[in-house]
Amino acid sequence: MKVFVIAGEASGDLHGAGLIHALKSKLPQTKFTGIGGPKMEEAGLELLLPSSDLAVVGVAEIIGHIRPILKAFRRTTAWLRKERPDLLVLIDYPEFNLQVAARAKKLEIPIFYYISPQVWAWRQGRVKKLRRLVDRMAVILPFEETFFRSHGMEVSFVGHPLLDVVRAESSGTEFCKKTGINAERPIVGLVPGSRKSEISRLFPVMAEAAGRVFQDRPDVQFVLPLAPSLDSQILESFNCSIEISIVTEADRQSLTDKSPNYPIIRVVKGQTYDAIAASDLILAASGTVTLEAAILGTPMIVTYRVSPFTCFIGKCLIKVPFASLVNLVAERKVVPEIIQRDVTPERLSHEVLSLLKDDTGRENMTADLKAVKDALGTSGAAARAADLAIEIISGMTAA
Hints:
Elements lengths: L1 E6 L2 H17 L4 E6 L1 H6 L1 E6 L8 H6 L1 H18 L3 E5 L2 H13 L4 E4 L11 H8 L2 E4 L2 H9 L4 E3 L4 H4 L6 H8 L7 E5 L4 H21 L4 E6 L6 H4 L8 E3 L16 E6 L2 H7 L2 E5 L2 H9 L3 E5 L3 H10 L7 H6 L6 E3 L5 H13 L1 H17 L5 H18 L1
Parallel strand pairs: 1-2, 1-4, 2-3, 4-5, 5-6, 6-7, 8-9, 8-12, 9-11, 10-11, 12-13, 13-14
Helix pairs in contact: 1-18, 4-5, 9-12, 10-16, 13-17
């Protein structure tokens, strides 16, 4: 049995790895090939291309990255023509995946979409293309099943796969001890995203906001869990008007008990969930991390910024009232959202300081985040998705 899997970014890599593990447990002789990241490769995927070649967001950003995307598309479609896999599994990343699906459909390759495109948010006309191309879809947000069923699609809500993987490995005290953080003082997590383009737009503003917070509250500590695919040197390449110190695990031993008169941002890798769970609150890029923080029960401030052109297109096309997944699942404003022109050091630092001072507000937000977690379903999403994938293969084989 041959299965080709495509995941174009870090969150897709995580979910794709879970699905591969689940399918291998049920169909152990299956060979997996495709586009993914380190987690999918570790799970048994033979990489045709790394997903880092595709990991960009926004219309303007994609245009600037078009050559490697076209190269990936040509290599993928050539492989599909030659190998004719038993199943094509697509994970989010619709701009690329829908083009591949159109080619696969002509080759009569069964198509399973796991982690649906967010067509309910913008460009809803794409649902017609999905209905024509996709044999079966598994969705991971509770409101998605109703949306796609209303458009005549074969769809199943399987629960959110993050419920199986999001957990802190260390207690807050243990994490602080390992990272040189004082567990008795407030901790603010900075999570500027997993893509280089996101970090270039958000990290300098977050760092300057950290400096402003530190000026008002020198007791506040900052930790930044860096995506596994990124190197800490990318953070040091940005100029900030407020002096900061970026400390990695390699040089953490050089820290002294005496605090400098500027903030220290401690960078950790491989400890994302521990860092988020240990934080009193996080300042996070809009995306999957907001649901991860909700599952861990950590209060947050959500922010995001794209190019002006992408923002203009988005305003014309986006049909949902919120930018963050947490607020969309809650169907109301649970966490603050700071977007585009409002993303300034002054605004971010003001929101952080306000939430740090508001113990009751953080407690209420934590309770709301528990309700969001409950709405995401139960554990076992990857296993349920694997069963759906096997149904497609079995059905095509019988036919």
